[in-house]
Fold this protein.
Amino acid sequence: MKIKNTDFYESDFIKTYSPNFNYLNINYIPENILNSAYFLLYNLLQPIRNKFGEYIIINSFIRSSELNIKIRGSENSQHKNGEAVDISVSEFWKNGKRKTKKEYQESLFKLLAICQTQNYRQLIFYPKNNFIHISINSKDRSFKKQFIIN
């Protein structure tokens, strides 16, 4: 189901929540984590999408502790609290035509530049894996605006 006033779907929340996401629906995610995820979606991800003007691929959003351990995520991962998302760009233009490698890289750097203008806690660019990690501040963590190229 599409999330109201966004370009994203509930499945974007749960597709990385558990290894068995096909058996889950959004009601299995604790309310406090969903609230954080909606905050991130409305205040960070959707504004980025609006400025970017292209599709954004969500690689990882909310993660269960079980999945976070399985993929060797950080013990303090903000993904477990719905406060971080890993994103990348589509390999295709809106008209369905495949981007060249150069066009893909240009799109990725455009997305990164837009992310840098936002109010984030942590922004990590993984150029070898072609994705961007971005997180929000929460009341439980000290404020920082950290940009890392990994």
About this structure: The chain has one domain: 10-149. The mean pLDDT is 86.
